[in-house]
Amino acid sequence: MSGSSPRQRASAPRRLPGDRAPAVSGLMARAARLHFEFGLTHQDTAAALGISRVKVTRLLKQAREAGIVKITVIADVSPFAEIEERLAEVAGLREAIIVPVAAEGGAARGMLAHGAASYLDRVMRDGIVVAVGLSRTIAEMPAWLSNARPTRASFVSLAGALPVGGHGSGNPYQATDALARAFDGTAEHLHAPVVVRSQAVADELRSDPAIAQTLERAAAADMAFVGVGGREDRIDFNQGLCITAGEWANLLAGGMVGDIGGRFFDRNGLQIRDEVNGRVIALDLDDFVKIPSRVLAAGGPSKVDAIAAALRGGLATVLVTDVETARALIEDVQ
Hints:
By secondary structure, the chain is an alpha/beta fold. It contains 14 helices and eleven strands. The chain is elongated and about 75 Å long.
């Protein structure tokens, strides 16, 4: 409604299968219900429970931290609406979703995952096929879903996995499975390493009917959620010596600025011609760009060049990033 103020709604969060219920005291729960459900002030809640107002404030804080209360702002206006509109305009995006900056790496990924999960909540529909990329940020998406509901959605991995012992992004299957559970859908995995030791091995794996079928399924997806790797992300690929230091140097010398799902691209977002790209078991970027809706979630100073390149190459239709990265991208891509 025009001129109206944003409203807040408190509700119990939806727990995914396997989540543990928070430890909740009866007094905490009663205080939370009186204040958030019945609208009592802190003072009125204190009077109803026979405790001090200070204790009510403390109990309500504990209730939010324990996860038994979730605040949802019912408003369509983004706090960064003007920057979102400008970024979408200069980058040719369908939509830009901007989140606040977080200094710590894990917290920053959480912010981006939250933005991506909110978008998925909003656009999810029955029967949709969603391709899921190899990304630490995307791996955190399931924890931030707030409106997951039963659908006949299918979630399919678009890249193989890194060897065990990676830095959190090595297994796209966990995110694929968790998203499928959240929406009561199905999961399909690409059971192969993301990078293998030779072109011959890669050709043999890609000819396997199960792997070929999964790649075809990913290519035919309605939507994809991916992160982006930058020049400094070799450590992820170095687990198990997937890519040697010399090979990484060759990639950089060949103009590599980033990757999506293990597919390396140059500053124009074009897949580079390199021996390593021939050993990758993942959706080819030429097929990736045919997916109608491609959501890229990434941010931070080390990712600006890679994100800008992806935008130049039309690799994303929707971008989830932080406000500082958004400002840098506006200067870079316009």
